[in-house]
Design goal:
The protein is of the alpha/beta class. The protein folds into two domains: 4-176, 4-Layer Sandwich (Metallo-beta-lactamase, Chain A), CATH 3.60.15; 201-282, Arc Repressor Mutant, subunit A (Orthogonal Bundle), CATH 1.10.10. The protein has helices at 40-50, 63-66, 69-76, 149-161, 178-200, 207-214, 223-239, 278-282, and strands spanning 4-8, 21-25, 30-33, 53-57, 80-82, 90-91, 97-100, 103-109, 118-122, 127-131, 166-169, 243-245, 253-255. The chain is elongated. 42% of the residues are buried. The structure holds zinc ion. Zinc ion binds next to helix 2.
Amino acid sequence: MAYASRVLAPNPGPFTLEGTNTWVVGGEPSLVIDPGPDDPGHLAEVVGTAGTIGAILLTHRHPDHASGAASLSRLSGAPVLAFRPETGERELPDAGTVQGAGIRLRALHAPGHTEDHLVFHDEAFGSMFTGDVVLGRGTSIVDPPEGDMATYVATLERLNALAPRVLYPGHGPVVWEAREKLDEYLEHRLLRERQVLEALRSGPGTPEELVPSIYAGYPAELYPAAARSVLAHLVKLEREGRVRRDPAGGTRFAAAQARTRSRTRPRTPARAHRSEPPSSAEGAGTT
Ligand SMILES: [Zn+2]
């Protein structure tokens, strides 16, 4: 039997790719990771694939991963384990382990996408079940205040330090080059962070105002989601003291090193205070 069998939930969409991956791991009793939506056909297929289920594990509480948990528990008699358990569920803390037939998974608290996110690590096999922390394709969403970019980046670094070989994501295909994918994810976030700082060199801005230069070349219908991601970066940079909120407005941010704006207009435009050559700022977001 396969090490891990995927049962694809019938919930494809812009944020779920082909749908949610429900993973069935080990022999019987097996472990089921993310039951997916509360869809009778899907859950019947999960039971058919899993046979006797030892435990139902939740990576996080988003409905596309967790809303079928109670039904699957009723169908199978297996307990539901989560970082923040709801009524009738059991708590699975950071570093807690779960045993199935021929499989042992260790829970890793992996906040960032959500605060309650767990990644399940099979230390013997070198595999990780990553939920929405790492997807098989594209990037994960970090949407404040639920999403937190600083803890998300720390989570990616923590996972990378454990040197996994294979990633089994909550959406999209299995990732056989685990380290490369984690490096790519970290580089992508560092690139966006640099682009946000670059964009602020032209003056203060809200996430919505900064998006077109950072996401130049992307379709405009992605801009609202992109603005959430830019806000996540700005909140992280603010906490690090590298940007500050403009006193005039709640979501307007300025580079921390920029000269404080006085009520009287400066004699020269703010752009003229840049120490960098104009070409570097003008190049932001054009590639
Ligand atoms: Zn998801």
